[in-house]
Each structure stands twice: as structure tokens, then as C-alpha cells.
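During the second year of the project, the team shifted from modelling isolated chains to modelling whole assemblies. The rationale, set out in the original proposal, was that interfaces cannot be judged from single-chain predictions alone. As a representative example for this report, we include one of the complexes processed in the last quarter. Its constituent sequences, exactly as entered into the pipeline, are reproduced here:
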Amino acid sequence: ETGVTQTPRHLVMGMTNKKSLKCEQHLGHNAMYWYKQSAKKPLELMFVYNFKEQTENNSVPSRFSPECPNSSHLFLHLHTLQPEDSALYLCASSQGVGTSGSSYNEQFFGPGTRLTVL
Amino acid sequence: LAKTTQPISMDSYEGQEVNITCSHNNIATNDYITWYQQFPSQGPRFIIQGYKTKVTNEVASLFIPADRKSSTLSLPRVSLSDTAVYYCLVGDRTGANNLFFGTGTRLTVIP
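Output from the structure prediction step:
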């Protein structure tokens, strides 16, 4: 248990569906992240939110739309996805990007959502 | 952003010590070296971080030579449960450029 939860754990959707992934962190962190991990590929950073502001959008297609209503919650809205979007979507949190201090900005990851697009 | 290079895979028998080396020739003065562990279908988990010389915790040791162009993660007496992918990341403490994972090293522990 890392203090970061994700729902749902598994999701199957058609290409015309609209769904949302939810992430919640109970660690008092200020930064949250979405990563995509396809089969046998490295983790790809998608979005970064720091103090509720989006600070990174790593050239992600517009069919993925993030939302961060507060520092504890992060959503990833999905619409008109493609089969190649099938992957494990991981959420992570950390104290805050850009805040140096005595401790490293360690990321805590959730268990992920296994997404299958038919 | 400092690029890292690791072996793609390694095998080890149970009970042996495993050393995984990461090359980071372009490491900057303010950069730290951090290792994560990832089990199948789970998110990565922080293992250890260091700047120079040697760091040890209850899970692993990290050896960093004086030139800091490489680092070695050492796992003592591995067990089957240590089978995972191990990632080496290099970046400064702000975390702003510590967010990119490479391909990692897939360690398989054999009975």
C-alpha cells in the first residue's frame, strides 16, 4: 500500500466510449503524474500537475484529457481511443516538482489501471 | 537530461548477490542517482538514492565512483521475490527532470 489508489483497476472500452480513470493520494503531496506503460516498453510520462497546475504535457494526443481538481485527486478522461492505447496507466504523486529540500522528490505509484481498447 | 544505460536483462540464482550497473556519462553536478523497482502489473517503487560514494539501506546498496559516470545497485542474497525490473534515474533533487524512466534491467532470480 503506497498511499496512492487508482480506480478502476481494469477497464475494457470500445473506441467510441468515454471513460475516466481516477487517482487519489493520501500522502499530502502536491504533485501528481500520469504515466503510460505499454507491453514491453518503458514508462512514458504523460502529464504532470504541480500544485494543481499542469506543468508537463508530453505530446499526448487530445483524446487523453487530464483533470486535477485538487492536490489529492487526478483524473484522466478518455474518449475515442485507439487499440494502441491499450496499456497500464499509472498514477504517481510526490511532494512537489521544483521543491528542493533534504529529501528527494520520491514518487509514489498507484497500482495502475489496465486498459483494453477494443 | 542525463541519459542512462543499463543492461536489458540479468539472471541470478537465489542467495547470490546481484550487481546492476548503470552508465550516466553526462551526469550533472546537481544530479542524484535514484533506483526504482517494478514488479509485473504494479507501479515502480523507490529503492535507494545517492550522490557519491556508497549508500546502504535495508533493501540495497548503491555504489558510486568518484567520477559519478556510473553507479551500481547491489542486492544482497536475492530471493525469487526480487524478480522485477530495476530502473536507474538521474536528475536533481527538485524532481523536475527526474521523471523519465528508461527501459530498465529485468532481473530474473532462478531457484
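The interface with chain A takes residues 32, 34, 36, 41-46, 49, 87, 92-96, 98-104 of chain B (CB under 8 Å). The radius of gyration of chain B is 13 Å.
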